[in-house]
Amino acid sequence: MKVTVDFEECLKDSPRFRAALEEVEGDVTELELKLDKLVKLCIAMIDTGKAFCTANKQFMNGIRDLAQYSCKDALVETSLTKFSDTLQEMINYHNILFDQTQRSIKAQLQTFVKEDIRKFKDAKKQFEKVSEEKENALVKNAQVQRNKQHEVEEATNILTATRKCFRHIALDYVLQINVLQSKRRAEILKSMLSFMYAHLAFFHQGYDLFSELEPYMKDLGAQLDQLAVDAAKEKRDMEQKHSTIQQKAALQDYSSDDTKLEYNVDAANGIVMEGYLFKRASNAFKTWNRRWFSIQNNQLVYQKKFKDNPTVVVEDLRLCTVKHCEDIERRFCFEVVSPTKSCMLQADSEKLRQAWIKAVQTSIATAYREKGDESEKQEKKSSPSTGSLESGSETKEKLLKGESALQRVQCIPGNAACCDCGLADPRWASINLGITLCIECSGIHRSLGVHFSKVRSLTLDSWEPELLKLMCELGNDVINRIYEAKLEKVGVKKPQPGSQRQEKEAYIRAKYVERKFVERQPVSVSLLESGTKVLPQSQEEKRHSGPEKSLLAGEQGAASLKAVAVSSDEARRESLFCPDELDSLFSYFDTSSKLRSIRSSDSGIQQSADDSREHLVSTISANSLYEPEGDKQESSVFCDSKQSSPGLQLYRAAFEKNLPDMAEALAHGAEVNWVNVEENKATPLIQAVRGGSLVTCEFLLQNGANVNIRDMKGRGPLHHATVLGHTGQVCLFLKRGANQHATDEDGKDPLSIAVEAANADIVTLLRLARMNEEMRESEGLYGQPGDEIYQDIFRDFSQMASNNPEKLNRFQQSDSQKS
After folding, report:
1. Quick one: which H or E segment has residue 290?
2. 3-state helix, strand, coil in the chain (%, to 5)
3. In what ranges is there compositional bias, type Basic and acidic residues (predicted)?
4. Average pLDDT for residues 460-488, to the nearest whole number?
5. 198 and 71, same structural domain?
6. Hey, is 670 helix, strand or coil?
7. How wide is the angle at C-alpha 321 spanned by C-alphas 318 and 327, nearest 5°?
8. What is the 3-state secondary structure (H, E, C) of 726-794?
9. In-domain check, residue 154
10. Could you give the CA distance from residue 175 to residue 7 in angstroms, rounded to a whole number?
11. What's the CA gap between 204 and 201, in Å, rounded?
12. Residue 140 is assigned to a structural domain of this protein
């Protein structure tokens, strides 16, 4: 190994030694600068390489996204996937190269600079320091006088020690210089060699990778040549097709038939017809909007945009009719009427309107010829039909559970098959008759008119709880015993599921409209139908003797308690307006809630108010001509409904909550709004209120009962329900359009009666209904259902009245607890 600085010269400390040191120190300084610069350039190269890899990876991800987008083209997807995988491997190789560069150049050279050159610098500092001390010792030794022996000895000793230390440190410094000069060669070459091997490995891996891809690339190039030929051929074909269609369109402009392109009954895609129509909105403004309509899968649907989900106008075309509309200002209009709504449409021309009407009619006929649509088959698979008949107790248990309307109604005896033709698993119902029907019979029922039969789907429509209970109170067996009582006598054969539609239609019309199979009542009692007086005066007097005497006596004592009742109820009425009214509203959401009492400071007033209310309610009941139930049942007016007029039978059955008898009375021709002049001109609906049955009221309303007919005292069903505290009936009548502003002969409307009776629930319902009515009038929303919160509250009351009526009997519970 060649020595840069001679050790012998180091001991002599000659000018050659000092010159050599100066040369070496300058060289090391320049070496340090070069190495620092190289390390910084290496760091910059690595950072740039990583940025390149990041950008390359983003580019590769873009290729993969393009491959996924081209999933329908197998060639493009496969090629781009292979190329992106190859580029990903190259990115991995680049990352390996940068890691090797960082270890070989950056890390290794930085270690050499920070360790070896730093040791050289430390040795240089020590050498310079001891060299300076040596020079000082020589100068001091030369200046001492010979006659000062002790100073001579001291200077000599210092010079000797300093020379010894200098030789030691100088030798170490020379050694460090020689080692550094020798090591730097190895460190620099070693790091660069490692760096070059890393590149060699990188390019070898890239070469091997692309060598494997090369056959595929050559094959793809050959396919691209063929693709270019095919593309040129496709271009010529498309240009020819373009020219043909352009000529056809030009001929179409001069043709008088503008429907051939749009009307195609035998289309392969199942779309009978499609095209643009104007649709009139169902809002208050009745605006017209252009939409893309189509008839497909026995449904009429439309779309605003192609990407939107189709909106179904008619679920099943078998249930709708189509007709021209000439009574509006717009031309070319026609109307599609379904069971639940109607849709007004406008075509662009008269021929297009005729084509659409013909398409709808053809689809209706085609649907009837089919065995069943796809949606009905899927419903049968998802919800198995209930073939077994269950007892009444099992039915009530099911009503408490969460079954669908279909499952609940089909559990009733006889409802597992169509009431008129016997087809299994019926999906439709007549809500005013309380029977289940197949889809074909339901269409016939709908053609009879709503005054005979109101049809509703058990799967597509929403069902209110009172309607479900009504369906469960009747059923096919009950109705058929009434409407088919003389079927065997007259010798008519009941249609079967496979019978012709005309045969079913004739039978259903004879059964429900002409009522040919109903067992008629004797003619001798038909005079009672007029509602004339049926009890002699003596019997009327007997009726008021006995138990009624105590009630009449109570009227005499009522006047003395009236002042107390009014004064004590004032405090309670004040609390009804706020906040008890709101408390009563929200207390239904807590199953354990009871009637909230007034604060402890008002306990005395509350107690007196409750005691007085009992007398007040008794007084109101007496003044309303409400008779004890036992006396009513003993009255000769209600003796054996089978021998009474149909109207009187309906009147009596409504009070007794007997829906089969009510249905029989209607079948015998009873007027649903029959008036009993002997009972203050009360109607069956008023009697149903007095009987306390919500389902009975719903049955009469569904069969056309007028909710606003009043008795001689000016009280309608809503008045009577308010007086009796029947919250569920009040909710039902308000939903059915009862007039809550009507006043009786005393000038009281239902709200004032409820306030006097201190019934917070009914006050809340009446006030909410009045508030909703005022809001609709102020906003001009006539005929609209009202606010969503209002509908939710009434829906909750309906649910409780049908499923948990005990929650609405809080006043009665409170009174019984006090007694």
Report:
1. strand 288-296
2. 65, 5, 30
3. 369-382
4. 87
5. yes
6. coil
7. 165
8. CHHHHHHHHHCCCCCCCCCCCCCCHHHHHHHCCCHHHHHHHHHHHHHHHHHHHHCCCCCCCCHHHHHHH
9. no
10. 8
11. 5
12. no
Rg (C-alpha) for the chain, rounded Å, is: 51
* Residue 819: pLDDT over 60: no
Q: What is the pLDDT of residue 290?
A: 92
Strand partners, 682: 676
| Tokens encoding 35 | 């190495």
Check residue 792 and give its pLDDT: 65
Mean pLDDT value of segment 734-745: 86
Q: Are 441 and 504 a contacting pair, CB within 8 Å?
A: yes
In a domain, 521, yes or no: no
SS3 275: strand
Given CA atoms 592, 594, 598, 604 in this order, what sign does their dihedral have? negative
3-state class (DSSP) for residue 18: helix
Q: Are 397 and 390 in contact (CB under 8 A)?
A: no
Whether residues 79 and 222 share a domain: the answer is yes
**Strand, coil or helix: what is 572?**
helix
What per-residue confidence (pLDDT) applies to 212? 92
Domain identity same for 676 and 740: no
Supply the range of the domain harboring residue 649: 635-706
Q: What is the pLDDT of residue 80?
A: 92
Among 317, 348, 370, the domain boundary falls at: 370
The residue whose two tokens read 């409750």 is 610
* Cis peptide bond N-terminal to 579, omega within 30: yes
Last residue of a domain, one of 306, 336, 370: 370
CATH of the domain at 618: 1.25.40
For residues 652 and 752, state if they share a domain. no
Q: Report the interhelical angle of 646-655 vs 684-691 (nearest 10°).
A: 20
Tens digit of each residue's pLDDT (9 = 90 or more) over 526-585: 434 444 333 333 333 333 333 333 333 333 333 333 333 334 444 433 334 443 334 444
Q: Are residues 408 and 479 in the same domain?
A: yes
Are 609 and 571 contacting, i.e. CB atoms less than 8 angstroms apart? yes
| Calculated CA dihedral for residues 53, 59, 62, 64, nearest 10 degrees | -60
Considering the domain architecture, whether residues 307 and 351 belong to the same structural domain is answered as yes
**Among 683, 694, 751, residue whose Cα is nearest residue 723:** 751
Q: Global pTM?
A: 0.44
How far, in Å, CA of 786 to CA of 783, rounded?
9
Least confident of 87-101, 171-185, 206-220, 407-421: 171-185
**Residues 41-75: pLDDT tens digits?**
989 999 999 999 999 999 999 999 999 999 988 88
Rounded mean pLDDT of 683-707? Answer: 90
Task: Tell me the pLDDT of the chain averaged across its residues.
Answer: 75
CB proximity list for 63: less than 8 A, separation 6 or greater? 80, 83, 84, 87
The answer to whether residues 425 and 483 belong to one domain is yes
Beta bridge partners of 294: 274, 301
CA end-to-end span of the chain, whole Å?
124
For residue 141, what pLDDT is reported?
83
Q: How confident is the model at residue 393 (pLDDT cuts 50, 70, 90)?
A: very low
Residue 22's pLDDT band (cuts 50, 70, 90) = confident
CA distances from residue 452 to 430, 563, 684 in whole angstroms, order as listed:
9, 52, 19
Question: Do 698 and 743 belong together in one domain?
Answer: no
Q: What is the three-class DSSP state of 519?
A: coil
- Number of domains making up the chain: 5
614's CB contacts (< 8 A; 6+ apart) are 815
Per the domain annotation, does 85 fall within a domain?
A: yes
Q: How far apart are CA 612 and CA 618, in angstroms?
A: 10
3-state secondary structure 296-349: ECCEEEEECCCCCCCEEEECCHHHCEEEEECCCCCCCEEEEECCCCEEEEECCC
